[in-house]
């Protein structure tokens, strides 16, 4: 992934620096409002990363030691780590082979009376079945946190991913389509949720630093609870505001490039590329391919691509296979392990050319014979 950053972002960041307001301030507020509107939420609360956004979401929902939270192992490790930050226990669920997402059935097979929440991931930009999971979570009486780190620009049931979510967490890391360098966001529809999230990200203060400094009279703030310093800066938000304008074009371009990949890869046996689910559209934040029955192993394919000048990456990780989670004995996760061991992510970015794609596919075709 190569972030699409240009002179407009550089100018916006410079303007923020020249303004003298470089910490959380008016640009953060504007970015929150515009991003929330983009994803169909009533409120946005900017944070320092998606990881801190997930942490705040679980604190907000009262998840605590002794609780269990169902998560996919097939996700960046931050998804499971956020559960441990609040002292709860992550319980790994398997995923659907085509989408890489947890489902009602995989969640139901591992949930227990101690399950208080589920973190469902729109993996690699592929939306999960929002209608099915939200209905199931309501029926089970558990909270559903939507990890939308990769999903800006994706849709489910004709609406932006995140629309209608009780709590959704977003990432603006450089590997995402919309970037602020580092940064994240929590989106909610509940005004009380939004108010508490704003306090939690800023040391528990009952009035933000921006509002305090804007007041013409002295403001004596109070600290209502033990909280965190998870703020975004105005420099980051200035970049994000420019990026918001780029997003529709970036999604359209990536979907066009993905369509061409699908055409070029169609005749290669043992290679299955990621596609849109029936209920939505992916932004193709990642274009992964599953090597099922492929002649060459995944790692050998990665090595040959690198030799031929192609920077591909291994597929999405499985947290339960990492040393950090060696103390957890998960249930069988056959699809997760199949995907993480036999998939790779092909280059897909705004500088990718038709010749680049043909070269990449020619290497793959040669390895399939």
From TrEMBL:
Keywords: Aminotransferase, Pyridoxal phosphate, Transferase
CDD domains, per the entry: AHBA_syn (cd00616)
Keyword Transferase: yes
Signal peptide: none
Recorded superkingdom: Bacteria
Keyword Transferase: yes
Record-level Gene Ontology MF annotations: transaminase activity
Pfam families linked to this entry: DegT_DnrJ_EryC1
Obligatory cofactor(s): pyridoxal 5'-phosphate
Similarity comment: family membership: Belongs to the DegT/DnrJ/EryC1 family.
The protein's name: DegT/DnrJ/EryC1/StrS family aminotransferase
Gene source species: Paractinoplanes aksuensis
């Amino acid at each position: 992934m190569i972030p699409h950053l240009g002179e407009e972002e550089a100018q916006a960041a410079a303007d923020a620096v020249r303004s003298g307001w470089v910490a959380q301030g008016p640009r953060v507020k504007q970015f929150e409002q515009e991003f929330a509107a983009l994803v169909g939420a009533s409120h946005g609360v900017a944070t320092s990363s998606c990881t801190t956004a997930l942490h705040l979401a679980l604190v907000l929902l009262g998840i605590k030691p002794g609780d269990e939270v169902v998560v996919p192992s097939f996700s960046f490790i931050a998804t499971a780590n956020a559960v441990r930050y609040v002292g709860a226990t992550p319980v790994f669920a398997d995923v659907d082979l085509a989408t890489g997402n947890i489902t009602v059935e995989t969640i139901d097979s591992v949930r227990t009376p101690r399950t208080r929440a589920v973190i469902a991931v729109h993996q690699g930009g592929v939306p999960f079945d929002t209608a099915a999971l939200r209905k199931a979570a309501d029926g089970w009486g558990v909270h559903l946190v939507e990890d939308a780190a990769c999903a800006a620009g994706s849709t489910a049931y004709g609406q932006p991913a995140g629309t209608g979510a009780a709590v959704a967490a977003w990432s603006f890391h450089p590997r995402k389509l919309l970037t602020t360098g580092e940064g994240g966001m929590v989106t909610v529809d509940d005004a009380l949720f939004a108010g508490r999230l704003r306090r939690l990200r800023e040391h528990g203060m009952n009035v933000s630093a921006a509002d305090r400094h804007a007041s013409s009279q002295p403001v004596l703030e109070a600290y209502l609870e033990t909280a965190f310093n998870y703020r975004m800066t105005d420099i980051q938000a200035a970049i994000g505001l420019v990026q918001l304008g780029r997003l529709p074009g970036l999604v359209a371009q990536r979907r066009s490039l993905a369509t061409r990949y699908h055409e070029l890869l169609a005749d290669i046996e043992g290679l299955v590329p990621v596609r849109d689910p029936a209920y939505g559209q992916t932004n193709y934040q990642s274009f992964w391919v599953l090597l099922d029955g492929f002649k060459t192993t995944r790692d050998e394919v990665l090595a040959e691509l690198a030799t031929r000048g192609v920077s591909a990456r291994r597929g999405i990780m499985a947290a339960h296979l990492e040393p950090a989670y060696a103390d957890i004995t998960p249930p069988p996760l056959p699809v997760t392990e199949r995907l993480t061991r036999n998939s790779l992510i092909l280059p897909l970015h705004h500088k990718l050319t038709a010749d680049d794609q043909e070269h990449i596919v020619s290497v793959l075709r040669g390895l399939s014979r």
